[in-house]
Fold:
Amino acid sequence: MKAAVLYENFQPLVVENLELEGPKDHEVLIKLTASGVCHSDLHYIKGDREHPMPVVLGHEGAGVVEETGSGVSYVQTGDHVVLSFVPTCGQCNYCVRGRQNLCDARYQLRGKMLDGTTRLRSGSQEIHHFNGLSTFGEYAVVPEDSLVKIREDAPLDRVALIGCGVPTGVGAVINTAKVKPGSSVVVLGAGGVGLNVVQGAVLAGAESIIAVDIYGNKLENALQFGATHMVDASGEDVIERVRDITRGDMADYAFEVIGSTAAINQALATTKRGGTTVVVGVTPAGAELTIDPDFLHLDRVLMGCTYGSCYPRADMPMLIDMYMARRLKLDELISATLKLEDINSAFEALDQGEVARTIIRY
Ligand code: COD
Ligand code: ZN
Structure:
């Protein structure tokens, strides 16, 4: 099958034919319909985060079950699925306490399948998997626990976005911060994930939603998603603008969706006493955060957040129902749809701030 392989940091992905071994125990072969191109993949290309190489990246996909390995009971051939980049085993300490996004299984993967081996090869060379998914290929063998069965009338080339960007952003608002109606919310970074923080804030009934970005096109997108104000961080003083917009109060909540320590500090400084800052972005490995402890002293809360604190098998079908009922925007997130051969131009456009999400359609 055709897949895009990262051999070296900062090098273009190589689109080539790989051998994909069939599914083993509790694994499933998926024929992918589409994959979103997320900034986290770009972090691995640039080496902000380390990963065993070579690797097929991609963690935002949807498709159809082609074949099931032994012991698989959750799905059968023909089922439509979204892939979760966290497998949820249902049995570890985190899963049984309702914290499925923190499932132990996620930390057993390390570039391989859960049994510690790979299914991907290029000739004699072993190719690594990414989060057990590797959606930048026509097919993927994934753990059964990474699958979320979905309704068949949902368009797979749209609901692929339910695999990462949407639950990460919407979930940060609804599950992690639990934003209350009438709140003021600052969203730093109006990219693919940030736009979902904006639409999460709309769903939560926030009164003012202040989008912050360095590109005008991103801010325009944010308005379309329900932001009430925009701040251009390339030319404006973000903290002073938030002070003006909130009539001196500052915000109840701030979400950092950029992945920089400077932005985390900026987020903290835009919140009022007792306000909450949620860090959605992951900073480059080795980054250190220095904050003024006085901020926290005044009942402020600083929270981390992964995968929008979601339970994939409960939240993803719900998000899809909301999309089908036109209460959640997905189509508007998609700036372009490309073939796998054009994946490097998708990353270039993401890096240049030109797009919200690009979909690779197989
Ligand atoms: N001030 C304001 N906005 C900025 C600044 C700045 N100084 N610098 C960049 N931005 C804007 C960009 O213009 C862009 O619009 C936005 O920040 C980032 O958006 P994208 O579309 O490039 O990236 P996303 O939305 O796909 O991903 C952003 C994350 C921060 C979520 C991502 O990079 C990340 O850190 N992911 C890890 C967290 C995670 O949960 N990972 C699992 C899978 S994503
Ligand atoms: Zn992602």
Summary: The first strand starts at residue 2 and ends at 5. The CA atoms of residues 117 and 233 lie 45 Å apart.
